[in-house]
Amino acid sequence: MLRGLTSGRYRPRPYFRFVVKEPKERVIYAPAFRDLVVQHAIYRVILPIFDPTFIAASFACRVGYGTHRAADYAQQALKASPRDSYTLKLDARKFFYSIDRAVLRTLIERKIKDRRFIGVMMQFADYGSPVGIPIGNLLSQIYALIYLNPVDHFVKRELGVKRYCRYVDDLMLFGLTREQCVEYRERIAAFMRDRLGWSFRAPRSRPYSAASTSSDTVPGRASDSFASTAFIRCADPLRVESSTPSSRCSGTPGARTVCDT
Predict the structure, then answer these.
(1) What pLDDT score was predicted for residue 199?
(2) For strand 86-91 and strand 256-258, is the pairing parallel, antiparallel, or unpaired?
(3) Nearest-CA neighbor of 184 among 201, 199, 162, 208?
(4) 139-151 as b/e: b if 16+ CB within 10 A
(5) How far apart are CA 169 and CA 232, in angstroms?
(6) What is the pLDDT of residues 48-105, one digit of tens each?
(7) Distance CA 156, CA 87 (A)
């Protein structure tokens, strides 16, 4: 393995491919043990390079930035948001399967100049499909953080959203008006299309209010690249809500949420 890496002849072995159906059906690509060792070595090198470029509220695959810290941040942001404000929750549709690898490589090349090292990195982004990266690789998670990092800075700097966090492909914007939710959703989707090469489908979206279970329909637009997701929120001890539409948004009285369906 070492000789292959130093000579440039290293190639990952075929993935072990299997399907999981919970919480939704996904194809998992499990690497061979020796390739997992190489991924861990790459991760140890690139994380200190890219970690300082991430915003403080970018969670997952970072030391000290796991699910519990992400949930704590979201809960605190909800409590700090003005009463009667909205929270926009976006989940990129088929995110890992839709990543543009050419864009990903360009983002990596901005920080790393060793082309042979990048070549090894990108071998773990390829799994036989023209687009996307495989679910199951350790490096796929940090690639996801790198790929959406420009979106984080767009939301914070261009949109000026004070309370915002992301866990891989789940984005949450807190303390908005309903009009801002609609506008920012369009602008984020346009940014992803224009800067990240994202392609879209167009179902309809529907906002839900935590104050009631009634909803009104927002017509589908080209920006509807976001999948339906459960929304987790509460005022006191954290609990997970059902993913059914009637209960998807619940918790703090007076604070409302726009969710995608």
Answers:
(1) 61
(2) parallel
(3) 162
(4) bbbbbbbbbbbbb
(5) 15
(6) 999 999 999 999 888 888 889 999 999 999 999 988 889 999 888 788 999 999 999 9
(7) 15
**Residue from 61, 50, 45 nearest 96 by CA:** 61
Please state, as a whole number, how many other Cβ atoms lie within 10 Å of the Cβ of residue 242: 10
Single-letter residue type at 187: R
The bridge status of strand 16-20 relative to strand 58-59 is: unpaired
Q: How far apart are CA 236 and CA 259, in angstroms?
A: 21
Model confidence pLDDT, tens digit, residues 155-192? 999 999 999 999 988 899 999 998 999 999 999 999 99
With vertex at residue 87, the alpha carbon angle to CA 210 and CA 62, rounded to the nearest 5 degrees, is 125
Peptide bond into 253 cis (omega under 30): no
Q: Which amino acid is at 104?
A: L
Instruction: Give the span between the Cα atoms of 50 and 74, in whole angstroms.
Output: 23
- Pair 148, 169: CB distance under 8 Å: yes
Q: Computed from CA positions of residues 228, 64, 155, 141, in that sequence, does the dihedral angle turn out positive or negative?
A: negative
